[in-house]
Design goal:
Order of helices and strands: EHEEEHEHEHEHHEHHEEHEHHEHE
Distance between the termini: 44 Å
CATH architecture of the largest domain: 2-Layer Sandwich
Largest sheet: 6 strands, mixed
Structural class: alpha/beta
Strand content: 15-25%
CATH topology of the largest domain: Hypothetical Protein Tm841, Chain: A,domain 3
Number of helices: 12
Radius of gyration: 19 Å
CATH class of the largest domain: Alpha Beta
Strand order of the largest sheet: 10-9-8-13-11-12
């Protein structure tokens, strides 16, 4: 008797972690005109961003079909007695709905589908944490894993700082007028997930330096962190600087006497480095940098 974990490629979990934890990933579809690519199967992240910048056709993404899930569920039920399927927010993608339809058709009560209410590594950190728990507790029951997933999802947050508003304009996320004034004012919009799983505007700093400082301060306002990741669309000085500063916390001794959250709430565990897939990256654009973490929100 064993439980297998299924996820989707829009959770942006680095491939080294999916292999290490035995995760099975259902790829989302990337559409460049009439050409359809399956993420991490037909096209890599770096290849995608090269096409995004050079192509005259603005890409779109679409969720895996129920049929895509049925194939993977059927194959995995031959290896496991039950499946836990965790996916990006139902507020931003139909992936969760496709998974539910497939589970009802082929699962026979053996498949549990959970909405993470987050995107990218906001969902990915939850999945990694649950998979690590399962590896350490082979006899864990499905009810325990579902409770853990929901508990972690409530504490998971992702924030993304965009270098440009151009790709939000091209994707129809903001109006041309808003994009014009955003560019004129050099605004670096920060977007993130709310408690309902929607992606919303969070802040509008005037520079990437201020945007990155905002990301870090938001993370360090939270406590009892259980995971952290730095995510990028394309390699940049900004993403390296944020990753290196957070990774370097392990060498700094927290000052318990200080009232500053930057020392008291420092995260000193492993910081995962990941790449945004098309689900977020199409609209965030090249140069975007994000931070995802699981932590308890500060008391109001």
């Amino acid at each position: 008797m064993s439980i297998g974990i299924i996820c989707d490629s829009a959770s942006d979990i680095p491939q080294a972690y999916t292999k290490k934890l035995g995760l099975v990933e259902v790829p989302i579809n990337i559409n460049f005109g009439d050409k359809v690519f399956k993420e991490n199967v037909d096209i890599s992240g770096d290849e995608y961003y090269k096409k995004l910048v050079s192509s005259d056709v603005f890409p779109t993404t679409s969720q895996p079909s129920p049929g895509d899930f049925e194939k993977i569920y059927s194959a995995q039920l031959k290896k496991h007695s039950e499946l836990l399927s965790i996916h990006i927010s139902s507020k931003v993608s139909g992936t969760y709905s496709s998974a539910i339809q497939a589970a009802e058709k082929v699962g026979k009560g053996k498949i549990t589908v959970v909405d993470s209410k987050s995107v990218s590594m906001g969902a990915g950190l939850v999945i990694i944490s649950v998979a690590n728990y399962l590896q350490a507790n082979k006899s864990a029951k499905m009810a325990d894993l579902v409770k853990l997933t929901n508990d972690l999802s409530k504490k998971s947050r992702i924030l993304v700082a965009c270098e440009t508003v151009e790709y939000m304009k091209r994707g129809g996320r903001i109006s041309a007028g808003a994009a014009f004034f955003g560019g004129l004012l050099n605004v670096k919009p920060v977007i993130g997930n709310n408690d309902e799983g929607e992606v919303v505007s969070v802040s509008r700093p005037r520079s990437m330096v201020k945007a990155l400082s905002f990301l870090r301060m938001e993370a360090e306002r939270h406590t009892n962190h259980q995971g952290m990741a730095v995510i990028q669309t394309t390699e940049s000085f900004d993403s390296r600087a944020l990753f290196n500063s957070l990774s370097g916390n392990a060498s700094i001794k927290p000052d318990k006497k200080s009232k500053s959250a930057s020392t008291e709430n420092m995260y000193v565990g492993e910081v995962i480095k990941a790449q945004f897939g098309p689900a977020v990256g199409t609209h965030a654009g090249p140069g975007a940098v994000g931070i995802a973490f699981i932590g308890e929100a500060p008391k109001k």
